[in-house]
Every structure is written in structure tokens, then in C-alpha cells.
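Batch manifest line 377
LIGAND: 4'-deoxy-4'-aminopyridoxal-5'-phosphate
JOB: complex structure
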Amino acid sequence: MIEYREKLQRLISGGTYRTLPHFERDGKYLVVDGERLLNLCSNDYLGLQQIPDLIEEYREAPEYSPLMSSASSRLLTGNDPSYDDLEQYLSSAYQVPSALVWTSGYDANSGIIPTLVDGETLFLADRQIHASMVEGLRLSGCRFSRFDHNDLSRLRNLLEKNEGEYRHIWVLVESVYSMDGDEAPLKAIVALKRDFPSMCLYVDEAHAVGVRGGGLGICREKGLVSEVDVLIGTLGKALGSVGAFSLQSESLRELLVSQARPLIYTTALPPIMVGWTLFLLRKVCEMEDRRQHLQEMIRRLGDRIGRMLESQIISLVIPGEERVVEAAEDFRRQGLYVRPIRKPTIPTGTERLRLSLTSAMNAEEIDHIAEVMKRWM
Ligand code: PMP
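JOB STATUS: finished
ARTIFACT:
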């Protein structure tokens, strides 16, 4: 087979070479080279992986489907009734016209954004949106501008400059940003719609569903769902399953089914997983105790390190490649598993550790995390 040594060597010398980590899982811990480390990289924010007997319970539940493969696209014979049940549950829980389930959040974002292009369309995207949305922008072939992260005055300027020039101006944001864990000022963003009639709003809630708004995210918590034109939620993080959903108008759903390539040309998620998602989603909506515990842990860590934390995702900026690697090793010596984040994921000089808390963590663990963090602050 053909070798790619030279190209690989260029990545190594440019500092953008990546490798897959290896470990075993043990509840909220990872076992790495024989060491048991508290996992601070998981998106299992509600600790669903720690609940015993859940799979046995699912087998007896009305949502259960034994089908381990869809064996075709949803547009062929992969569209099992479990999809209809999940989409109906989502559209009625959010009180929106329609829901559509996707194989992953990456597929949803990269498939929906190009489909939104309608005549003259402009996209205005926060500089920190996820790679899957950037992929959608590229595939759309449309003009797009990025505004500095959460910079509303810059966003307003861009809207002023372009209003009247385009049929639709889509603003793309996340409700909780995946890298820094800070929130978008969603109420203020929604308010811009009053001044700019061509503005449409796209909100990715990947890191807020399950955790906020009774499990349905921040738009729901703030009563903004009806103001959002496309809302994305992922199912593989706090919701403990796999895939994603989008909420939108009926006509946009029809258009997506006709045109979104990652929906049309991929094998549908297996019904056993779609049923599992609905089974878990119903439970997650009832898990107020876990959400409250997680919020308490976030507050506790914030108090201990003297920082106002906006979510379960915490970024600890430690500029310099060597230093951030050294910090990750220090965390590991203290029994905590984190991965250093470097270029090309983020620009040079903003190297960081990205930590995420889950409701499976206790006060003692939070205090320990705080002590280790303080050494690097
Ligand atoms: N959107 C955001 C904001 C994300 O952080 C992620 C995953 N990290 C995705 C979308 C992609 O979701 P998935 O993992 O389901 O492809």
C-alpha cells in the first residue's frame, strides 16, 4: 500500500501531527498505562454512563427496538418508526413545527448550512463556531464573514452594512461554546432580529442540551425557541447516545430531506440506538437532581479558583506548546486526565487545557481539581 511518509513528516515538523489516545474505561475514570485517572475530557455531562442496569431497563421499555442496523439510508428503507417517535417527541417537547434526526452533529451542521442558501444569502458566523459549521459554510459556496467571539457591536455593524443586499442573512452561533464553555448573549442576539428583517438565527446547542432548560437547552430555558430558525442539539454528549437533531419549519424539513447530502447519502442510525435515544431523552428531562448537582459542582469549582464559570466546560489557557503539555502531565500525576489543546485546533499562543465537569463528580474531586488548576493559573 502507498506510504505517505513525507506528508506526515511535514505535519510533525509543523506541529500539527495528531495521534489517537489509548485507554480503558472504568466509569468516570480512565485507565491509562495502568494508572486510574478521573476523566476531565468527557461530554457525558449527566454521568449517564455510570447508571447501572440502564440497558436492561431499555430492553423492557416501549421504545426498545432490537434492530442493530438500518442497512440503508432513511430515504430508502432505513426510516424505521423509531425515527418518527423520536422526532415527534422532540417537536412536541420544544413546541416547534418539525424535528429531524441526523447521524451526527457534524452531518447536521455540514448538511443543513448549504441547504439554507436561497437566492442571495450571507452567513455571519461567530469566530468560535465548531468545525462542522465551518465545513457547512465552505460547502455552501456562499459569502460569509466571521465576527469576533460574542462581539455584538461588530455583528450589528455587519448586519447594518448588509441589510437590504441579501434575501437572508444567517447568524450562526452556539449557545455554550465548545472550547471556552462561555455562553452566547442569546437574548441580545435575538433582539437584533427586530431591527434587521433579513436576519435568520442558527443556534447549535450541542453542549447545553441535557444540561440546561430542563434538559432541552438554553433557548428553551430563556423562552427563545420560537425566535430561532434552526436549532441543533447533539445526542452523543449529555444525552448519552449518538446522532443529532435539528428543529426547523415544516418546509425547511422537507427541503433538507430532498437536498441535504449527509442525510440522503448515508446509512441511517440503527433503530436500537434511535430507541435508546428516546428512552434516555425521556429520563434526562426528569433528571433535575443531576442538573442541579452539576450546577453546584460548577459553582464550587468557580468559588475555589476565583472565576465565574458559565458552564461545565472550563478552559485553562496556558500559552506555549511545551508548557501546556507539561501542565497536562502534571494533572495526570495528580490523577486527572486532560488533553492539551494546541494548533491547528486553536491559534498559537492560546494553548490550553479544556476541562469538563460531569454530575458524576463529587465535592472532594472538585476541590482537588481546583488545587491542581491553581498551580497553572
Ligand atoms: N457542534 C458542536 C458545538 C460540537 O462541539 C460538536 C462535537 N464536538 C458537534 C457539533 C458535532 O457533533 P457530533 O459529535 O455529534 O458529530
